[in-house]
């Protein structure tokens, strides 16, 4: 015989439809979003990794001042590589952006067509999909420059530009103002050939086995090629940010998203736990009778567990289906919002299934089982007597009779529901954390921009770029090129002040190894005002990120070598735009065996116009420094709306469920006071007001806790997701917004609860009274 | 002897507030006997019933049912004992609100390997036509009939009834008593009923009167009358 108790399940579901529906939808949304994210993340990472082979991505590229002759090419290819022309031309567009034009590639760095068709005629163009998105361009639109226009026939992803870095030295990519595109060969030839850049890609005949070997080979290669042609740039793939940045960045949010899922699951499990306790209290007589009749505790535990577990399982399954179909695209969209990735194929992800389905169901099982085991541990007799409190409250908490009866009543309701309110408080903390996270990022970014603006070292920082030919040719050629270089980078600008720079990496350990720029500045620098003398200062961003204090010793190393350098920190310099070390120029030059008069660039408050542009590696101005915050805004801005919506949803669900439980728990008393003649309004003031008071207190008390937790979370997030550092800053308005959002949400729920109070029948009080 | 109670003692509380509810009871009940436990509130009759039912334990003494001693049983064994041998009827019907009358009875039937026929039982209980109703659509008497059905459908050896008519009016109470009598005659279950209604003793085979935790009277009712003839 089938257990007749099973027949209760559909009826239970029907009678508690609101509660289960809310929990179900929350499960579906959470699990769907997380599984969508994990599937998209994994599928895209696979697509990205496969793209190297699929699109035959180069092993590196270099640029020469002139076209390479056939004999030179043959000499270069004898070095164990194959060369491919990958010329480009950059044009300023009418919208102020820069477009880099390539011929469509057939052999190496092949292009993924994402929408439309490849250009077939002159005047047609296929542009990077993400640049198009960020500039609201679509197939059929026209791009114009000063003297030409192109019809967009397709949106593409260039496999060597998954991240739109214009120059490899740039600190952040720019998918808003910089785009890449392909045109037909004829169209390419019709562009301004004066701007033609002789860029060549290479593939090794025999791939190096690891990055270390790749570095060794590429260093030799640079020298060897430099002996054959004059190099302007030389970028092996492993240093090419346009190719590698995406892979390094992907997967960083995974841990955070999974953590979010589990926190929600645990909270939901506790909500179920409380709901179950409530049901057990309500059904104490029935449970006592069943136990007295011979039903075992295990049978009852299983019976009461069935529905929550089934709802979770259904939520997890439907969430997974949605994750794999609809939400996957939403999450992939977030990646497509940051990176020019090729199209991907959805790959079944067993780990995602485990994490989003098996684990939540297990959490639910364990929490529910524990709560039920605990609750049903009492003897049948206790259930029959409805004496469910393990420990009896010795006596009621004394309340002065001077307190008005309504206030005392409310206080009693609060005392009675303490356990529910504890869960409510945890829920509020969690929901508010999410909300805070959503509200925080935009304000942090704008504050960061402002801060950078206020404490820039100089309005312009010119980083000079020694042509590769000056270090990779015959000795004579090197000397000649170097002399020419130093001649051409001299300036008469009075604001200009020389500095030397050297790049090292932090030691890998607790935090991943990161690049630190060491500045050697003039003793009486007007741009870096610190008493450097013989010591070293570090930027405040560096100090914040690695929690370094004055007096500590920092150790840095060469990126690919074992050489380590230690410096004692004599001070912290208020500079938030990057991880830097400041010391006197002489000291830096000496430390790194550079010549005494060596310098790497200029600080200047006015634009320097008299040095040759080709020797300027990069210009660090406000625009460049704020690129990181601008890009984060573009990449994560859309997600923040989602996070805020989700936070409010969780918040509403929790408050709805918990206040519903409180009202159900008190249904008999509510009914009784109704019989006594209390109006619905008065009853609401007693029961809803109690919860209102608790909500307001919880909201206020939770703020400092959230702030403290957020400090930790923000720090971990920044450590995991960005190079460099952004300091956390909470706009006071955020607290106001959080409080207001919490309160408004509560009011909406309270109105629903008011309706519920009106519905409590008066005969409730007359039932089951012993 | 089917049911043997030997020197059962039970107290609640500790120190000054300790109350000795049962002060050493001895009682024997034959198989198929209808035994009524009478006594005022606090006399210990419900406690004794609960000890017989295995949902409460004695501090001292032995309870032997069909040769098995309850005190030696683990919690798990007690559940099995209740499952196999006992049916319970309470003053509060404790029906499962979202199961129909029939389903509530099936909840009891599930516990037995050889339950009684539910349809037949519904007829005997007089609630066949209400079988598809939910408990809240029934009167108190009908609900108690359903509760009796749930208790006896597994054809228990012992039916324990704790004030089964305590919440019912005179006529309904008599109907319920008649039903319990019918069950006893038809299925031969041993019935132990707790009541403070003195009139009910007249329908019992054995009458046990308790006061202050002691058995004051224990006798076989020589002049048993049918429930229909009871009056109070």
From TrEMBL, chain A:
This is ABC transporter permease. It comes from the Bacteria. PANTHER family: BLL1001 PROTEIN (PTHR30287:SF2), MEMBRANE COMPONENT OF PREDICTED ABC SUPERFAMILY METABOLITE UPTAKE TRANSPORTER (PTHR30287). It is a multi-pass membrane protein. Its main location: membrane. Keywords: Cell membrane, Membrane, Transmembrane, Transmembrane helix. The chain crosses the membrane at residues 20-40, 255-280, 301-327, 347-372, 418-441, 639-663, 684-705, 734-752. Residues 259-373, 643-760 form the ABC3 transporter permease C-terminal domain. Pfam families: FtsX. It comes from Jingyaoa shaoxingensis. InterPro entries: ABC3_permease_C, Membrane_comp_ABC_pdt. It is found in: Cell membrane.
UniProtKB/TrEMBL annotation, chain B:
CDD domains: ABC_MJ0796_LolCDE_FtsE. InterPro entries: AAA+_ATPase, ABC_transporter-like_ATP-bd, MacB-like_ATP-bd, P-loop_NTPase. Keywords: ATP-binding, Nucleotide-binding, Transport. PROSITE patterns: ABC_TRANSPORTER_2 (PS50893). This is ABC transporter ATP-binding protein. It comes from Jingyaoa shaoxingensis. Residues 3-230 form the ABC transporter domain. The keyword Transport applies. It holds the Pfam family ABC_tran.
């Amino acid at each position: 015989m089938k257990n007749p108790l099973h027949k209760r399940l559909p009826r239970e579901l029907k009678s508690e439809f609101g509660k289960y529906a809310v929990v179900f939808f929350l499960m579906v949304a959470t699990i769907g979003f997380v599984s969508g994210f994990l599937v998209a993340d994994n599928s895209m990472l696979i697509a990205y990794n496969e793209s190297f082979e699929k699109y035959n991505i180069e092993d590196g590229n270099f640029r020469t001042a002139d076209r390479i002759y056939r004999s030179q090419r043959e000499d270069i290819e004898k070095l164990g590589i194959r060369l491919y022309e990958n010329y480009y031309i950059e044009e300023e567009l009418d919208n102020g952006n820069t477009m880099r034009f390539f011929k469509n590639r057939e052999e190496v760095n092949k292009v993924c067509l994402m929408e439309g068709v490849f250009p077939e005629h002159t005047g047609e163009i296929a542009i990077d999909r993400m640049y198009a998105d960020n500039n609201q361009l679509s197939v059929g639109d026209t791009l114009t420059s000063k003297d030409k226009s192109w019809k967009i026939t397709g949106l593409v992803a260039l496999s060597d530009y998954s991240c739109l870095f214009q120059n490899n030295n740039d600190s952040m990519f720019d998918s808003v103002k910089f785009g890449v595109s392909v045109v037909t060969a004829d169209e390419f030839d019709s562009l301004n050939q004066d701007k033609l850049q002789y860029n060549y890609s290479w593939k090794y005949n025999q791939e190096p086995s690891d990055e270390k070997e790749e570095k060794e080979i590429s260093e030799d290669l640079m020298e060897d090629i430099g002996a054959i042609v004059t190099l302007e740039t030389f970028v092996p793939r492993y240093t090419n940010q346009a190719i590698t940045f995406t892979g390094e960045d992907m997967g960083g949010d995974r841990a955070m998203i999974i953590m979010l899922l589990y926190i929600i699951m645990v909270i939901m499990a506790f909500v179920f736990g409380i709901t179950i306790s409530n049901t057990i209290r309500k059904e104490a007589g029935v449970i006592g009778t069943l136990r007295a009749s011979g039903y075992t505790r295990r049978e009852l535990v299983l019976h009461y567990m069935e529905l929550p577990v089934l709802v979770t399982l259904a939520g997890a399954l439907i969430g997974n289906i949605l994750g794999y179909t609809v939400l996957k695209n939403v999450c992939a969209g977030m990646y497509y919002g940051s990176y020019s990735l090729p199209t991907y194929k959805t790959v079944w992800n067993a780990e995602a299934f485990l994490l989003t389905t098996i684990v939540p169901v297990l959490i639910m099982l364990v929490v529910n089982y524990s709560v039920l085991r605990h609750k049903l541990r009492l003897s049948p007799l206790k259930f029959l007597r409805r004496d469910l409190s393990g420990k009896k409250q010795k006596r009621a908490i004394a309340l002065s009779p001077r307190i008005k009866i309504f206030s005392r009543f409310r206080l009693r309701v609060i005392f009675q529901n303490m356990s529910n309110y504890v869960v409510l408080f945890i829920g509020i903390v969690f929901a508010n954390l999410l909300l805070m996270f959503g509200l925080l990022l935009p304000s942090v970014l704008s504050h960061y921009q402002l801060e950078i603006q206020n404490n820039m070292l100089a309005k312009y920082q010119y980083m000079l770029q020694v042509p590769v030919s000056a270090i990779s040719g015959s000795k004579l050629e090197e000397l000649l090129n170097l002399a020419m270089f130093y001649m051409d980078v001299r300036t008469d600008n009075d604001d200009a002040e020389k500095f030397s720079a050297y790049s090292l990496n932090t030691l890998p350990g607790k935090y991943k190894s990161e690049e630190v720029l060491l500045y050697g500045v003039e003793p009486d620098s007007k741009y870096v005002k610190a008493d450097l003398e013989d010591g070293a200062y570090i930027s405040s961003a560096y100090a914040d990120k690695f929690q370094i204090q004055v007096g500590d010793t920092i150790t840095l190393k060469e990126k690919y070598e074992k050489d380590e350098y230690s410096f004692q920190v004599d001070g912290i310099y208020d500079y938030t735009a990057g991880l830097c070390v400041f010391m006197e120029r002489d000291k830096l030059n000496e430390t790194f065996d550079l010549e005494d008069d060596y310098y790497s660039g200029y600080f200047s408050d006015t634009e320097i116009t008299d040095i040759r542009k080709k020797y300027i590696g990069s210009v660090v101005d406000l625009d460049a420094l704020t690129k990181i915050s601008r890009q984060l805004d573009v990449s994560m801005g859309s997600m923040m709306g989602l996070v805020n919506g989700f936070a409010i949803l969780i918040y509403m669900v929790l408050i709805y469920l918990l206040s519903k439980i409180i009202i159900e728990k008190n249904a008999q008393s509510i009914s009784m006071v109704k019989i006594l003649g209390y109006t619905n309004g008065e009853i609401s003031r007693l029961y809803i007001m109690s919860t209102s008071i608790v909500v307001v207190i919880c909201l206020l008390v939770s703020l400092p806790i959230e702030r403290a937790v957020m400090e930790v979370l923000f720090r971990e997030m920044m450590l995991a997701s960005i190079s460099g550092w952004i300091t956390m800053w909470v706009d006071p308005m955020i607290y106001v917004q959080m409080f207001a959002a919490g309160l408004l949400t509560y009011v909406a729920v309270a109105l629903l609860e008011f309706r519920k109070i009106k519905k409590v029948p008066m005969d409730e009080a007359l039932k089951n009274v012993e | 002897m089917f049911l043997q109670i030997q020197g059962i003692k039970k107290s609640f509380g500790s120190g000054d507030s300790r109350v000795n509810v049962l002060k050493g009871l001895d009682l024997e009940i034959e198989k198929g006997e209808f035994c009524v436990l009478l006594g005022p509130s606090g006399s210990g009759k419900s406690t004794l019933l609960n000890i017989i039912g295995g949902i409460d334990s004695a501090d001292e003494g032995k309870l032997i049912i069909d040769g098995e001693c309850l005190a030696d049983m683990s919690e798990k064994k007690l559940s099995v004992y209740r499952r196999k041998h006992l049916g319970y009827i309470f003053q509060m019907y404790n029906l499962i609100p979202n199961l129909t009358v029939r389903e509530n009875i099936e909840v009891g039937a599930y516990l037995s390997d050889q339950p009684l026929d539910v349809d037949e039982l519904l007829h005997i209980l007089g609630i066949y036509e209400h079988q598809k109703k939910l408990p809240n659509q029934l009167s108190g008497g009908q609900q108690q009939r359903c509760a009796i059905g749930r208790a006896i459908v597994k054809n228990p050896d012992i039916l324990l009834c704790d004030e089964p008519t305590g919440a019912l009016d005179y006529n309904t109470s008599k109907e319920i008593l008649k039903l319990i009598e019918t069950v006893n005659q038809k299925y031969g279950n041993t019935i132990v009923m707790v009541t403070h209604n003195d009139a009910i003793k007249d329908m019992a085979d054995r009458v046990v009167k308790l006061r202050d935790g002691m058995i004051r009277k224990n006798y076989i009712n020589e002049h048993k009358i049918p429930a229909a003839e009871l009056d109070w």
